[in-house]
Amino acid sequence: CGLPLCLRPARGSRALRGPMSVLLETSVGDIVIDLRTEEAPIACKSFLKLCKVKYYNHCLFHNVQAGALIQTGDPTGSGTGGSSLYGLLYGDQARFFEDEFRRSLRHDRAGVVSMASSGPNTNGSQFFITVGDHAQEHLDDKYTIFGEVAEGLDVARKIGAAYCDPDGRPFRNIRVRHTIVLDDPFDDPPGLEVPDASPPPSELHRQQDRERLADDEELGGDGEDDPAAQDEALRVKAAKSRAEVLEMLGDLPDADVEPPKNVLFVCKLNPVTEDDDLDIIFGRFGAITSCEVIRDFKTGAVAAEGTRTPRCQRRRPRPRAGFRRLAQLRLHRV
């Protein structure tokens, strides 16, 4: 074992007799995990102590594979972060610990808890729970099994059924809110700092909730489980987040700014479009007092946006955005 002596669980000690358990309070419900201290003492000790120092609080379930597994444990939510207990104590050179494979432990049912890794001996803080009843033999002898779900398998399966994007990230954030160590016979290693209370959400967590639906955000109506409603809510949140960035950059006076009701955005203009062309095209829908095609101030080419303002709003199409060539025509009503 490459770990310092103070971190090696002693065989035959009380730490290796009887089950140890951790309660994960998630935004969907509670999950109790019994740890396999005999078969994976290094992984169990790291996991227990990370739970004890509230390392997992606010972590996203960032990888959900329907009918297979759910993954969490990365404080960054990116799937590439996280450190073991040993990395927290001794620096980046001890970020990962070695695999602990046992032929008696297989990914053969739902509720198996394993370390997530990117290769041999790269176990950090991330872990996953299987949610499929079938055997997943491709996981055997690649990922260290260190526990099993004792209670709350229905909660894990509910997370596994969440509506996700193509990368497996739920559209509605699902988090580990708290971790409670129910039994920890391992002695705390020197230098381990245990907080008195759960840490508050960081700016990263708030940013994640601005980009996605927050775990406690209500859609209203009957849209809670409707993928289309979640898509629409996520689209609105993403647009709001981008507007806030533009406001910080000074490109927008206010993130909540809206175009005047008598201004129409027209998309996909031909690069040779002139102001008079727009007047001819849109004049049949109502009187137009002015047209303006936004152009690059250096090249004079049609820029990416423009508006028009019609006299009559009855036929006014809704503003649209996101096209490469967007003409902005100001058609002021009289």
TrEMBL record:
Residues 214-229 have a biased composition (Acidic residues). GO terms for molecular function: peptidyl-prolyl cis-trans isomerase activity; RNA binding. It catalyses: [protein]-peptidylproline (omega=180) = [protein]-peptidylproline (omega=0). Pfam families: Pro_isomerase. Coiled coil: none annotated. Residues 203-213 have a biased composition (Basic and acidic residues). This is Peptidyl-prolyl cis-trans isomerase. Its main location: nucleus.
